[in-house]
Amino acid sequence: xxxxxxxxxxxxxxxxxxxxxxxxxxxxxxxxxxxxxxxxxxxxxxxxxxxxxxxxxxxxxxxxxxxxxxxxxxxxxxxxxxxxxxxxxxxxxxxxxxxxxxxxxxxxxxxxxxxxxxxxxxxxxxxxxxxxxxxxxxxxxxxxxxxxxxxxxxxxxxxxxxxxxxxxxxxxxxxxxxxxxxxxxxx
Length: 187
Prior knowledge:
By secondary structure, the protein is an alpha+beta fold. It has helices at 2-8, 100-103, 107-117, 124-127, 146-153; strands spanning 19-30, 37-43, 49-52, 60-70, 85-99, 134-143, 165-179.
């Protein structure tokens, strides 16, 4: 949903035509080497992984990761008794990797373009089939230091980042509410 919003607006111009937008990725531990290291991959429900790495065939790459999920207590009535409404808060991060010379944009402007088009609320037409009551997105901190972002995402992996590299992180929170009696695990 977030990627679709980005691609439809700010990232629809020709400079972003060689872009790759991936879904939710996970860090995977690489073992059997001298140094413990991590990579990032989008993993499907069959356990098949597509590694997300810096690939210079794309002018821009975007993926998302879940940092944590919480379920804060929300009473449904004035008596403090639990009701049927559940709230889920997913703390997320969106990683943006761009080639400055191909995009002709500074990292701060790349982040600003993403923030401008980040959806603040998902429309009822989208969330109703998912049996959600509401879905709000709040943007948090932004890290534009490529070395910080690299170390958090690819711990133990060595990479020389040059002055042409835009590597940024936008932290955000997805807050959804739903009726716990309607919750079903789906494919």
